[in-house]
Amino acid sequence: MPEFQLVLSDPKTRRAVKLEIKDPKSSVLLGLKIGDVIDGEPLGIKGKIKITGGSDRAGIPMRPDVHGPGKKYVLLSSGPGFRPKKKGERRRKLVRGNVVSEEIYQVNAVLVEGELPQTSTNKQ
What we know:
Shape: globular
Radius of gyration: 15 Å
Strand content: 35-45%
Distance between the termini: 36 Å
Largest sheet: 5 strands, mixed
Helix content: under 10%
Mean pLDDT: 90
Strand order of the largest sheet: 2-1-7-4-3
Oligomer: single chain
């Protein structure tokens, strides 16, 4: 079973928390696409969350307009996975598809309704 780091942000409070999702909760995220809204109860989160992106262990980002769970070389001019240095610059870059698979390590999500879970972090 895969393990995920779920980075969950709350747009109202402008805070984000990082949660470790392990067996058997991790199977809830498998097969979801970028933009899907799910109930957070199986993950231990009160409310609904929306998947906004992610990356694999090598840091290759997910892209919402590439279909499927695999890696592909895509010609990009902006957006996730490429920051152009000059106006009009395009490059062929390696990105992942929009489906959460076992190769994905970090999943980014936004809280649609509800509240962030409390984490025990040392603030100094």
